UniProtKB/TrEMBL annotation:
The keyword Transmembrane helix applies. It comes from the Bacteria. Keywords: Membrane, Transmembrane, Transmembrane helix. The chain crosses the membrane at residues 17-40, 52-72. The keyword Acyltransferase does not apply. This is Putative solute:sodium symporter small subunit. Pfam families: DUF4212 (PF13937). Residues 9-84 form the Sodium symporter small subunit domain. It comes from Rhodovulum adriaticum (Rhodopseudomonas adriatica). InterPro entries: Na_symporter_ssu (IPR019886).
Length: 86
């Protein structure tokens, strides 16, 4: 595999990880917190409903999880392509 092919494979994998993270981010923040909030209103969580929980706390926890997922996955991808920092 040439250096150009390796770089293209790395970039394609990187973009796939970014797109997956963005879809999850949009679904949680805009979907669950705003659009689907009325449907989630009947599910109690911590003294409130699930839609409010996603809008206030759940989205923040998911965002933190996405940060750790992205860092872990990119470190693994870097090692696979030989561009890691170690």
């Amino acid at each position: 595999m040439s250096a150009k092919d390796s770089a293209m494979a790395y970039w394609k994998a990187n973009l796939r990880i970014i797109w997956i993270s963005l879809v999850i981010w949009a679904l949680v923040s805009f979907g669950f917190g705003i659009l689907l909030r009325p449907l989630l209103a009947g599910i109690p969580v911590g003294g409130s409903d699930l839609g409010f929980w996603f809008a206030q706390q759940g989205s923040i926890l998911v965002f933190l999880g996405l940060i750790f997922f992205y860092a872990w996955r990119m470190n693994r991808l870097d090692r696979e392509h030989g561009v890691d920092e170690e």
